[in-house]
Specification:
The chain has about 160 residues and is mainly α. Helix content is about 70%, strand content about 0%. α1 packs antiparallel against α2, α1 packs across α6 and α5 crosses α8. The longest helix has 24 residues. It is globular.
Length: about 160
């Protein structure tokens, strides 16, 4: 059984419901996955694979959006773990389409690459998606206190990288 596919009180998502969730969540989840992995192509693939899994289990997933966040976070963490050495030497796209745009964008993206993946994920979920700590904890599969620590350490790392 896949992560978050609870059998108690199954609710069918339906074709229209699935399409709505896909249209609303796909761009946000790709940005989240990109920020976590540092690869636009991997981000799209991981999110697409997650939606395929959701589609297969749509009759058993009670809360699709939190389920998607957690599943994407798990897939991204696994992807990063498998490619730690590759990431150290990999070419990075200068301005991928999912990167935030601003004058400070390149410096912020470079600083974010230096932050640990879980801290980066927590920072994105909090400050980009504006999620409360409880939902971040659910997405990352950890306690709310851990989210506070991830955010605190992630911000400290960013400040150190940006000389703020």
């Amino acid at each position: 059984m896949a992560v978050g596919t609870e059998v108690a009180e199954p609710v069918s998502l339906g074709e229209d419901g699935f399409r709505t969730v896909y249209e609303e969540q796909f761009p946000l989840l790709v940005r989240f996955a990109y920020l976590t992995t540092g690869s636009a192509a991997a981000a799209e693939d991981l999110v697409q694979e997650t939606f395929v899994e959701l589609y297969r289990h749509r009759d058993r997933v009670r809360a699709p959006v939190p389920w998607l966040r957690r599943a994407v976070a798990n897939r991204c963490t696994s992807w990063v773990r498998r490619r730690v050495l590759e990431r150290r030497h990999a070419f990075r796209d200068p301005d991928p389409p999912y990167a935030p745009t601003s004058a400070d964008g390149p410096a912020v993206r470079a600083a974010l690459r230096q932050v640990r993946p879980r801290q980066r994920a927590a920072l994105f979920l909090r400050y980009y998606l504006d999620l409360p700590e409880r939902e971040i904890a659910e997405a990352l599969g950890c306690a709310p206190g851990t989210v506070k620590a991830l955010l605190h350490r992630g911000l400290a790392n960013l400040k150190g990288q940006l000389d703020v």
